[in-house]
Amino acid sequence: MKFGSSILVAGIALFNAVRGDAVPWERLNKNDSMLLVLDLQVGLYQVARDWDATLYRENILAHAELGKLFNLPVVMTTSAETGPNGPLPKEILEMYPDAPLIKRQGEVDAWDNAKFREAIKATGKKQIIIAGITTDVCTAFLALSLRAEGYSVFANIEASGTYSELVRDTANSRMQQAGVQLVSMFSIVCDLMRDWRNTPGAKEVLPYLDRYLPVYGFIARGHAAAIDNGTLIDGEAGLI
Fold first, then answer.
1. What angle (nearest 5°) sits at the alpha carbon of residue 40, between those of residues 39 and 42?
2. What angle do CA 169, 161, 89 make, to 5 degrees?
3. Which domains does the chain have, with CATH numbers?
4. Which residues are catalytic?
5. Does the record bear Nucleotide-binding in its keywords (predicted)?
6. Is 26 helix (H, G, I), strand (E, B) or coil?
7. What is the band of 211 on the pLDDT scale with cuts at 50, 70, 90?
8. Do 74 and 35 touch, CB atoms closer than 8 A?
9. CA distance linking residue 199 with residue 150, whole number of Å
10. Mean pLDDT across the stretch 180-207?
């Protein structure tokens, strides 16, 4: 019985050692990161049914603007955009008129496209922030391919979308088991920024959050309004 228990304990330890999500925490480094805009196309947008449509539009624009906020190299790619998938939103294209845009004609996994691989390698970065439509195909296939090539992958869970919550959760679990880090937009911003006193810091980041994460932006607005008014009403003084 003791022998069987030892085998079980050893098996659990081995399992935990090889689990993708058991790797030490790796922080995003803005000097070694790049942003990937993956198949966030106007036609495919209709497939993202796991998000409120209005919120999701803001999410994909927030993802794209991370490159401008932190001066990251940006690579964009589309899948069969002359068909029903359509182009990238004009707002994203206008953000990066000079960034590489790889228009794949058939490859489902973007890593299968030689020009795309060259564009990624040309950045010289090892940390890749990714989001795409759909989560289970475009995002997951590429994220797994990048992990196999030794890249660190940070999947922005708020900017990928698919046709059901079950499919989304299954895809996220699959990626996580391969060591892909599942992160929120706010997490990405704070990790790249590191310190509100940095540049980019509060001056640059708060307007971005006010635009794309108003629950935080309005904290800043409330504080600014209180300082500007400079008064307390009855009962407030005892709360601070």
1. 110
2. 170
3. 33-193 (3.40.50.850), 195-229 (no CATH)
4. 138
5. no
6. coil
7. very high
8. yes
9. 29
10. 97
